[in-house]
């Protein structure tokens, strides 16, 4: 008998995702890709970063090459605090650490609270990165469906009755990935009342907060943490990221935690990577403090709105009746729900054979359901590719609907 690798139980619970499998198509220039939920390559602040680095004093450049504190480069931590205070978050009860992307923040929270067999309540659909991470901790993830205003209150109440020992609730209230929706003020108030009544922790993932398309919608992006009273806020953890407002290549995010648990989170962070990249943090600090971030956001919001508009125009023009979706008011995504019984995998097969890729809904489901849904990510698609790409998907939907209607 040959040598076998003694994998851990954690690794044995992992499996490849549809997104990972589709990346071979997504990076092929011969395909139109609606698969990757990533910023547009042509919109990154390259000139701004060059200017920032050129103007840094020599001693700061030298510091950027060095290790830094586990909780983050102190000037950047202060800049993030100031930024989040402008959104109404108080640091009387909380503190912030810089993380290597927001997913590391979700990992830290998971290691803080999850043992094998513990339950996490999420929306369905939900962010595949978080779902995969919870599964790696051998947690039981239970999904609660949403409508256009957010998670469904009645179903959430019923779910908690079934799983009263759930460790925390994981939500994406702003420009949801993959759902594209934004929580209404009323639904936000319900969530805060719910966690208060149940004594349940909340992990708020707010990666897309700044990517609203209309100034009037900015008021809708208020973080749940800033809406909570002082006592309820002690139940809330908040993950933010520079990936959508700066660049994912810098691998930076932040995690805001109640002060009571902050030191334990710091120990976990230190065991993972000692510190996040100091070089990235020095650049991000100047990007925030010197006004580059606001001007960059003002530049990219219309670009993403343009892509959203082009997608919606094409969907209205080509998609058959019976297809449902919520008009995104920000972010990167359009969530498509097909008529019951129509298999989204059939649509994908047709699309791939015609040079178009997207991600199936089952990837975003805790129980791999949502077989009649899929996500269109339009953020990194060239504008002139949107209509032909959507037309191909529409043809695939028509064919899949005909297949579903055939007897037997």
Written description of the protein model:
This protein is α/β, with parallel strands linked by helices. The chain has two domains: 143 residues, Aspartate Aminotransferase, domain 1, CATH 3.90.1150; 236 residues, Aspartate Aminotransferase, domain 2. α9 links the parallel β6 and β7. The longest helix is centred in the last third of the chain and has 27 residues. The mean pLDDT is 95. It is globular and about 70 Å long. The protein is built from 16 helices and 13 strands.
- Per the CATH scheme, the topology name of the largest domain is Aspartate Aminotransferase, domain 2
N- to C-terminal distance: 47 Å
Tertiary shape: globular
| Overall SS class | alpha/beta
Task: Outline the low-pLDDT stretches.
Answer: none
Overall strand count: 13
Give the C-alpha Rg: 22 Å
Order of helices and strands: HHEHHHEHEHEEHEHEHHEEHHHEHEEEH
Strand order of the largest sheet: 2-9-8-7-6-3-4-5
Tell me the name of the CATH homologous superfamily of the largest domain: Type I PLP-dependent aspartate aminotransferase-like (Major domain)
Can you tell me the CATH class of the largest domain? Alpha Beta
The biggest beta sheet is recorded as: 8 strands, mixed
CATH architecture of the largest domain: 3-Layer(aba) Sandwich
The percentage of residues in β strands lies in 5-15%
Average pLDDT taken over every residue:
95
Tally of discrete structural domains: 2
Can you give the helix content as a percent range? 40-55%
Number of helices: 16
């Amino acid at each position: 008998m040959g040598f076998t690798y003694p994998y851990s139980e954690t690794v044995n619970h992992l499996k490849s995702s549809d997104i990972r499998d589709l990346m071979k198509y997504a990076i092929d220039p011969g395909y139109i890709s609606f698969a990757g939920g990533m910023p547009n390559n042509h919109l990154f602040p390259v000139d701004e970063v060059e200017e920032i680095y050129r103007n840094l004093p020599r001693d700061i450049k030298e510091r950027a090459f060095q290790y830094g504190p586990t909780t983050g480069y102190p000037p950047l931590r202060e800049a993030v605090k100031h930024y989040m205070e402008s959104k109404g978050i108080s640091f009387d009860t909380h503190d912030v650490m810089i993380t290597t992307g927001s997913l590391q923040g979700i990992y830290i929270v998971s290691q803080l609270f999850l043992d094998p067999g513990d339950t996490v309540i999420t929306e369905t659909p939900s962010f595949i990165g978080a779902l995969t991470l919870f599964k790696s901790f051998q947690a039981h993830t239970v999904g609660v469906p949403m409508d256009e205003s957010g998670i469904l209150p009645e179903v959430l109440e019923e779910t908690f009755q079934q799983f009263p020992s759930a460790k925390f609730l994981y939500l994406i209230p702003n420009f949801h990935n993959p759902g594209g929706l934004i929580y209404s003020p009323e639904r936000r108030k319900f969530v805060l009342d719910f966690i208060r009544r149940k004594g349940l922790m909340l992990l708020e993932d707010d990666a897309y907060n700044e990517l609203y398309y209309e100034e009037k919608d900015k008021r809708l992006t208020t973080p749940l943490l800033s809406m909570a009273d002082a006592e309820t806020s002690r139940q809330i953890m908040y993950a933010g990221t520079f990936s959508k407002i700066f660049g994912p290549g810098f691998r930076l995010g932040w995690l805001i935690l109640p002060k009571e648990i902050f030191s334990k989170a710091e120990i976990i962070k230190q065991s993972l990577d000692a510190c996040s990249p100091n070089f990235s943090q020095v650049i991000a600090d100047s990007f925030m403090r010197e006004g580059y971030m606001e001007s960059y956001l003002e530049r990219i919001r219309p670009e993403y709105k343009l892509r959203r508009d082009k997608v919606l125009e094409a969907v209205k023009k080509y998609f058959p009746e019976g297809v449902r979706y919520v008009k995104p008011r920000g972010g990167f995504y359009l969530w498509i729900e097909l008529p019951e019984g129509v298999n989204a995998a059939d649509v994908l097969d047709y699309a791939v054979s015609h040079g178009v890729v997207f991600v199936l809904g089952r990837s975003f489901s805790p129980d791999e359901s949502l077989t009649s849904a899929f996500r269109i990510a339009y953020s990194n698609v060239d504008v002139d590719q949107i209509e032909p790409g959507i037309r191909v998907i529409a043809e695939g939907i028509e064919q899949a609907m005909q297949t579903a209607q055939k007897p037997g």
